[in-house]
Amino acid sequence: MKKKIIIISSIIVCLLIVGGITFIAHNKTSEDKTSDVTESLEAETSTDADKESDVSTDKEKDDTSTNKKETNTVESDKKEDEKKTDDKTTEEQKTEDKKTTENTESNSERTKKDEEHKHTWVTGYRTEEKVVHHDAVTHTETQTTYTTETQTIHHDATNGEYWCNACGAHFSSEAEAQAHQNSGGNGVNCIMDGYSGHGGSAAWNETVTVQVPHTETVTIVDQAAWDETVVDKIEYTYCSECGAEK
Fold first, then answer.
1. Interval 76-111: pLDDT, tens
2. What are the residues whose beta carbons fall under 8 Å from the beta carbon of 8, sequence distance 6 or more?
3. What is the SS3 assignment for 1?
4. How far is residue 49's CA from residue 43's CA, in Å, rounded to a whole number?
5. Which of 62, 126, 190, 215 could share a disulfide with 166, CB 3.0–4.6 Å?
6. Would the CA dihedral through 200, 205, 208, 211 be positive or negative?
7. Strand runs (DSSP E) across the chain, as ranges?
8. Strand partners, 210
9. What is the dihedral of CA 48, 53, 59, 60, to 10 degrees?
10. What's the start-to-end Cα distance of the chain, in Å?
11. Closest to 204 in 3D by CA, of 158, 156, 160
12. Cα–Cα distance for residue pair 58/61, rounded to 1 Å
C-alpha cells in the first residue's frame, strides 16, 4: 500500500513538472509571436513613414525642378527679348549709319560737282495763276417812301363874326351888326355900306386821306462780288547750263 502511494505521488510530480514545462514553453512562444507582430507593425509603420517621406521629398524635388525650369524659361525669354531688342537697335543703327553715309557721300559729290562746274546765272520769269476775290461794290442812299393813311381831324366850335363895311367895327352876332347899321353907326356910310360876316358852327370831326412819308437808309449794290483769276509774273535766277536755281 505504501508503495502504491509513492508511485502515484511520483506520477503526479512528473505530470506537474511536464505541465509546468509545457506552460512555460507555450508562454514563451506567445511572447515571441507577440514580439514578432509588434516588430512587424513597427516595421510597416516605419516603412509607411519612409514612403511618405520619400513621396514628400520627391514632390519637393519635382516642385524645385519645376520652379527651376520656369525660372530658366523666364530668364531664357528675357534674354531672347534682350537679344531681339539689341538686334533691332543694331539694325536701326546700321540703317541710320547707312543713311548718314549716303547723305554725306551725296553732299560730297554735289559739292565736288559744284566745284567742278561754274554756274552761269541768268534771270528768268515764270507765271503763276491765283484767284483774287473782289467784294461787292455798294453805296447807301436815304430814300423816302409814302403810305396812304386815313386820319381824323377835329374842328372846335366857332362863334359868328361880323364887321361893318364902313368903319370896320366887329360884332359877335348878326343882330349886333344890324343894330349898328340901324343906329347910323359912326356916320352915314355905316348905314349905306352895311355889314358882312358869317355865323358860328358847332364842333365836328373831319376824315381825310393823307400820304405819310417814311425815310430809311438802303444799300444799293453797284456791282456784285466776283472772283478774278490773275497771272503773276515771277522773276527768278537760274544757271543756264545746269538749271540750278538760287
1. 666 676 766 666 677 777 777 777 777 776 666 666
2. none
3. coil
4. 10
5. 190
6. positive
7. 121-134, 137-155, 161-164, 170-171, 195-198, 204-223, 226-239
8. 149
9. 170
10. 169
11. 156
12. 5
Q: Which residue, chain included where needed, has cell 364887321?
A: 163
The Cα–Cα gap between 46 and 243 comes to: 104
Whether residue 140 contacts residue 171, with contact meaning beta carbons closer than 8 Å, is answered with no
Q: What predicted TM-score, i.e. pTM, was given to this entire model?
A: 0.26
Cell numbers linked to 32:
515571441
Query: Domain 158-201 belongs to what architecture?
Result: 2-Layer Sandwich (3.30)
What does the pLDDT look like over 22-74, one tens digit per residue? 777 665 555 555 555 445 555 554 455 455 545 445 555 555 555 555 556 65
One-letter identity of residue 222: D
